[in-house]
Amino acid sequence: MKFQNDIEFFMNKMIKREPFVFSRYADGEMFIIKNKELDASVQIDKWAFNGQKAFRDELLRSLKHQEDNYYYAISCNCCDPVNSEIYKKLLNVPHERLTFANLWINGNYTYFKENIGKVGSVHLITNANAYGRKYPFEVSSFYPIPHNCVEYYEQDPDRIHSLLNDFVDNAGSGQVFLVAAGALSEILVHKMFQRNPNNCYVDIGSALDLWTFGKATRPYHNPEHGDALKLCDL
Question: pTM for this structure?
Answer without folding.
Answer: 0.96
